[in-house]
Structures are given as C-alpha cells and as structure tokens.
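Table 4 source record.
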Amino acid sequence: MRPDTSAEYVDHNAEAARLERTAGLYPEDAEHLLLQAAAHLELADDRPRATSFYDRLLSTPSTLENPFLVRALKAANLWEYGHEAEAKAIIEGVRAASPRDPAPWVIVAESLESHDELEAAQQTFTEAATHLLTDVPEPPYATHPVLFGRHRVRRMLGLPHDNWDALADTLHSSPVSLDELHDPKRVWSLGSDNPAELEAEISRLRAELGTYREALSRPFPVAVLHWPASELAELVTAYPSLAEEYPSHEEHLATIEGSLRELAASGTPNLGIVTGTVPSYEAFAASEGASPGDASLLPQYATTLAARGRAEAWPPERGASCWCGSGRGYGECHGGPDA
C-alpha cells in the first residue's frame, strides 16, 4: 500500500494531489486513494498534511471499511513528527479494539519497535498472533508479517523461541533463516573488513530483498464481480441487455461461489471478490467511452476495482461472515458443502 519510491523519481506532492482529485471522482474508492495520497505526503516529509488526510477519513468513521488501519497509520505518522503522546493513545485504542485485519496490528507494533519500545512491540505482536491465529490451521498470507515481526522483536529482546516463533520459521521461505536475519549481533558490511563476514552479510541482504520483492510482486486478486441484490435489480432495470448475464440474484451468487471453487481447484492463487455499485460502474463505463449495457465491460470493471484495492480475499477466514452479505457465517452459507 505504501508507495515507497524515492523522491528522485516521483514527485510525491504531485502524486498526492492527483490521488486526491481521483478520490473526488470516485468517492466509493476515497478511502483507498486518500491513504495512498497520505503515504506520498509522508514520503514528501509533509507529515502534518498527511495527518489531515487521515483526519478527513476519520471524520466519517461509519463509512470506512477499515477505520483501524487509518487510525494505525495516523498514529505511526504522528509519532514521526513529535506527537508521541497522541500516537501512543491511538495505538492503545487500536490494541484494545482487537481488529480482525492484521495490517493495523503490524503498523502499530512496528511503530513501537522503530521507537525502541521493544517490550510493547513484542506484546502487541503477541496479542495479534493470539487474536488472529489461535486454532487457525493455516495462517493466511496477510498474517505472516505478524509472526515475522514478533520473531524479529523477540530476537532483539533475547527471548527464547516459542511455538509462534517456530511457526514463523516454517512459513519463512528464504534460504537464509529468520534466526540469522534477525540476529541482533549481526555484523553489517559497513562495520567489517573481513571478506567472509562481508560476503555473508551480502547474502543476508539479498535474501531480505528477495522476500521484500516477493511481497511487492503479489498480483492483484483474480477478482469475481459481486452485485448486492438492490444494485443488481437497479442494474438490469437500467440496462436490460445485462439480464442475460444475470438471470436472477440467487443464480448470480451461486455462479460466484462456483467460479471461485473451480479456480481454486485449478490451482489459481490469490482469489478475491469485488462488490460493484451502479454509479461506480456507470462512471467506469463513461471513462472507457462505452455503454454500461456492454457485458464485455464487466470483467474489466472487476479488474479495475481489484487494482484499486477493493477486493476481499476468498474464501473468508474461518468464522467470518459470508461474502454475499447475508449476515450468516460463510460455513453456514455459501461456504457449506451444499452451496
């Protein structure tokens, strides 16, 4: 999410302004776009203005998909320009709320870590792991930074390995072990004149860079488009030609689940669902110079929503509500064996 590109190659202020304008055109995507804009402002060292973007989003918390992520980013930013007390208060609020999304946990824990609050960082990572991963057979990819960050901080504190650390070791795919990467006594290349130590450090840095690149290169989800019942009714009323694509809402939902299961069975990774709205779809069609009644626009619209960060991972985590919006658990709804 963070556009970590050198200011030598990117005008971060101009990019933030562009994203702000785009948010005005696509209000349904404002949260994602304004968070990117705030990140550019942080990189431009305009942290007060970045905070104003976070405050702008938080002024209407009921409309946010992930208010805890916004709060976590605001806290990390505030601490960087001297507002430690306010940042810590927000961090405690995020921890007390125990969000289900791993990202806020990682952001506040890493903020504590970067300011040498290692005990608090370790406790935060541990709370996150306990809350998100207890009785979970396979940790979702999004939770890996929780385990890796916890492992790193515990190594700096000199704490012995426990079960969570062992799990982090098994999830780590780099040829250089986490213990070696997180060794607090690690000899950095600039501090050594020993060729063997220099070569070893280069290997570690290459391993870290490879892991970072792998995380950045994860593709957008293969996203399937979902229309809530009211939106689908409005869509086919306004554009009757799409009724062939969507005979009924029940069939539409069944097709989504069936398509995703087929993709999963074929080995397709990183699957997701994007939820459409008629105004957003009409705006997309206008931007493409096409008619909303053209069914060939639908997969392009889904891909565009995914690229804007609108995709929700499929299948939902165990115990989570079904993606269809029924309010029932996924396992009791479309995730059941008879779905």
